[in-house]
Amino acid sequence: MTGATVGVDLDARAYELDRAHVFHSWSAQGSLDPMVLSGGRGCRVWDHAGREYLDFASQMVNVNIGHQHPVVTAAIAEQAARLTTIGPAVANLQRGEAAQRITAHAPEGMNKVFFTNGGADANENAMRMARLHTGRDKVLSAYRSYHGNTGAAVVATGDWRRMPNEYARGHVHYFGPYLYRSEFWAETPEQESERALRHLERVVQAEGPQTIAAILVESVPGTAGILVPPPGYLAGVRAIADRYGIVLILDEVMCGFGRTGRWFAFDGYDVTPDLITFAKGVNSGYVPVGGIVISDEIAATFDDRVFPGGLTYSGHPLAAASIVAALDVMAEEGIVDNAERIGRTVIGPALDKLAAEHPIVGEVRGEGVFWAIELVADRTTREPVDAATIARVKAGLAARGVLVFGADNRIHFVPPCVVTEAEVAEAVAALSDVLADTLEIR
Ligand SMILES: Cc1ncc(COP(=O)(O)O)c(C=O)c1O
């Protein structure tokens, strides 16, 4: 038997086992048809039979350093040989090094890290800290947001995933800026920013500022559409939080650690949060982990008072070792700079050209390696294409060997930060072919 034949058998076995025994996220299980993947390197992944794909989804928009970076996999293996697990109450060198590496990228006055298992529980615990710190109850967050799948995080989420799960209390939603589909009849980014801020402040006033513990915001909303904030917006949110004594939590789970071409997405704006939540890009998902970077003021609240929260795997040594190695290679190899440069000089111009050539593209927006392509049935009315069209585009791309992230009427073009110019050209050419085919079918 050839290697390819063995591979085909392994792919079939993986598929069969999955369909028999694995229950998937956010899905009706009966109609699922998952792709089998077994290996990867850099921006590419492949199945057992050797069929290769360019991973322009970075899986869940988390594999920022690319797949299987050898320095990071070696650091995990080394840590596994030394000590695979240890309780959260002890001091452990790798945990401390990981916390120090993370706070080194945070603003001054943010010196402590609480580690969680992922992004949702980072937000869950950040909201808890804000509530205990302020003695207030409510949390404000945007309708266009995703904050994770735990009790409060999913209710802080704005999108459809909140509605079947609304058991937590004290959550209020507002509209953030999104000029292309403005809720505020705005025609310029400046108008959108000003009016979205006025709306947010009116929500704060109408809810009663003395009842509001936190405003939770994705610095750049990701799954909701890669909505790069207009000028002055995040600084304006900070000013509103300050005016009413509200804690500002910036959710950097998807947009942090290189995705926007900056270490933290908020580095591009004139804003300092009180709490930063992170996960995904901090170690590119090599081991599950998330956490909160905490301001000195909020950390001090818990100097003499118990923080009523914890996890068996808070600061797990394999996760900690992977964070240290991932952040070190990101710095040493200029990976964040690559994301910034390739976004500005290659991806942005290539997607603008694509938009000019294909009337189905309503808008392209993004920065770094964080781009959304909004597909519309009509450019004048901006009517979104339907889910079937997005499914066809995704399938067409996969058939041409390119994986992307699909959300609502959008294709998210979100490769690892290490992506090269040639890989971008390959993915854009495939997308151009698929969009031309899609228009023909419609
Ligand atoms: C902005 C944001 N916050 C939180 C989460 C939840 O992270 P996790 O899936 O690691 O719990 C996500 C996941 O996509 C996210 O994009």
Automatic annotation (TrEMBL):
Keywords: Pyridoxal phosphate. CDD domains: OAT_like. GO terms for molecular function: pyridoxal phosphate binding; transaminase activity. GO terms for cellular component: cytosol. The keyword NADP does not apply. Pfam families: Aminotran_3 (PF00202). NCBIfam families: PRK06062.1. Belongs to the class-III pyridoxal-phosphate-dependent aminotransferase family. This is Taurine--2-oxoglutarate transaminase.
